[in-house]
Amino acid sequence: MTDKQNTKITEIGSLGKQALIQRLTQNFETRNQSTAKGLENDAAALDHSQAQTVVGTAIMVEGIHFDITYTPLQHLGYKAIALSMAKVVAMNALPKQIMVSMAVSSRYSVEALDELFAGIHRICLRYDTDLAGCDITSSMSGLTISVTAIGSADKNRITGRGGAQVYDLLCASGDFGSAYAGLLILEREKATFKANPNFQPDFASHEYVLERFLKPEPRTDIVKWLADNDIVPTAMTNVADGLADAALHLCNTSHCGCEIYEERIPIDYGTSHVCTDFGTNMLPVSLALNGGMDNELLFSIKQDDYEKIKSCPNIAIVGHITEQNRGAIMVTPQNTAIQLTSQSWNPSK
Amino acid sequence: MTDKQNTKITEIGSLGKQALIQRLTQNFETRNQSTAKGLENDAAALDHSQAQTVVGTAIMVEGIHFDITYTPLQHLGYKAIALSMAKVVAMNALPKQIMVSMAVSSRYSVEALDELFAGIHRICLRYDTDLAGCDITSSMSGLTISVTAIGSADKNRITGRGGAQVYDLLCASGDFGSAYAGLLILEREKATFKANPNFQPDFASHEYVLERFLKPEPRTDIVKWLADNDIVPTAMTNVADGLADAALHLCNTSHCGCEIYEERIPIDYGTSHVCTDFGTNMLPVSLALNGGMDNELLFSIKQDDYEKIKSCPNIAIVGHITEQNRGAIMVTPQNTAIQLTSQSWNPSK
């Protein structure tokens, strides 16, 4: 996805609020029967029949969660939705509807919002999800996107953060640290460009980590694979602020500890490559533990499901659940135990 | 509700994100059986059984929707929730859960957020609603609160904006223009205070309009009254941006027109009093049509329900539905027809 050059610039104020919302949402068609009443109403009415409804929210703030100088607007729209969907996915449910609230300054043109909604449209199509509500308001500065994602699942399959038991296997989807590695590259190229505006950013060989940062995907494939293989995790959480934070979160809610084996943590070659680029002080495992923004899943399963799970190429068994008094630790290849710690207030990730 | 003087100031950054969220949400207990999984998870799981789920969102941005110089934080928390609940109520459903996402700058202390959440707690208790999710992130400047309200109702009772038929009666709850009148008073006193900091703001005799602006209530009483009296509106909408905008919205979605009788529009004495204060150019009916922020309901019912509805002291019959080609008009006491127009992009209201 690339932003196309807009030749026409329409000020947001030149359209009425409803006309703007109608323009931005006109290509969105209802795809799910459960979207009983959608965009044209004050709220959305959903019919999830016997299933439970799962609702997750995510908020993205310009200057905190994204830098518009290197974030194509289509990607931004895509990512805002992906992050909210990830909350629903982390409950072992599939997203079916999204509702978008935006606060936008007059610095943005209608055409810019068109781009943003092209990204939203794209992810809705890809994940068969309906835009069931859209509200837009002003902001003093910049852009804030708040998304509510709604899904449903049989109540016996919905998985919370509490429920992990001692001896359960700890599993993870995807790889860790790569989104943060992508951010490092973007920030470096931006700084170089600032110093020398004639400088041409060089993103060669970093495509994977850049995509991980700019355009994350909700792991609905994992939810489907678990259902197809009749596995219900005992506990599950979204990995948004690093693997360490996610493990602590799951352990705290489940009143247990965990052991994660360093060599089992999936780290992509591209992440290691970025670390090499940046010098010897930056370790790939640090990015995995604390980098954040991976948008992956961490979950525990019963030992009985081991044979099934080891066949899934997209899931790694990274450790196991222990008694609470053991704490949450990472074991190095040299068999040293390191207490996992969550970064304090750093919500920019 | 008044903000108490905080003697202790704790920087948000001194707590971890999870510790902050836990502190702010510790007094919230689950009150609804339908809140199957709540705060401690990535998303909320809700069990609305056979009923449909209704989801509404509202976003409030500092400097646009509220001015912290005259908005007590408890009221702000209360109002943010009330506005999102109003979206659910406008579908003829009762709110059961809310999810709060906030972006907050370091200018706010933990104690300030305590105040905000005291207001959120208060409205949750008042309307038997559960806080089912809470996420907090940073902002570059100021405070943005995004709230998702979730409710449920039998699908035969859920009412959208489309569905009004010719000859239906057009009904409204509460009164119009008073919230905007409250805002005018607050802005006037603020301007006077700026010019002379020794000036003591004078709010005497304006209590009602101030409360209407600072602390609106979702009209769950109307939803309950309609259910008790076995009335299902044919169409319904939230009045957020003035009566004219709401009427146009309902008519456009229902493909109809309407006639509203000026003398039937409920206007409180306090609103007229403010208009008198501000001079002869300001007409109470203009505030009612275009003022906004009333947080009331506009809805259409079948003529057959006339006998029932006329007995409800909180509902006024303001007009009736016409053919689409008649347009949406207001008829003055002099029998002049005035086309209703919605204010263009002015989302600060």
Give the overall pLDDT of chain A as a whole number.
88
Oligomer: homodimer
Task: State the separation between the terminal residues of chain A, measured CA to CA.
Answer: 23 Å
Question: Can you summarize the main beta sheet of chain A?
Answer: 7 strands, mixed
Rg measurement of chain A, Å: 21 Å
Determine the most extensive contact between two protein chains: A-B, 77 and 77 residues
What string, H for helix and E for strand, traces the elements of chain A in order?
A: HEEEHEHEEEHHHEHEHHEHEEE
Report what the structure shows.
The structure is a homodimer of 349-residue chains. The two termini of chain A are 23 Å apart. With 349 residues, chain A is α+β, with helices and mostly antiparallel strands. Chain A is built from ten helices and 13 strands. In chain A, strands 8-10-7-11-9-12-13 form a seven-stranded mixed β-sheet, sandwiched between helices. In chain A, helix 2 packs parallel to helix 3 and helix 4 packs parallel to helix 8. At the A-B interface, helix 1, strand 2, strand 3, helix 2 and strand 4 of A face helix 1, strand 2, strand 3, helix 2 and strand 4 of B. Strand 2 of chain A pairs antiparallel with strand 3 of chain B, so a sheet runs across the interface.
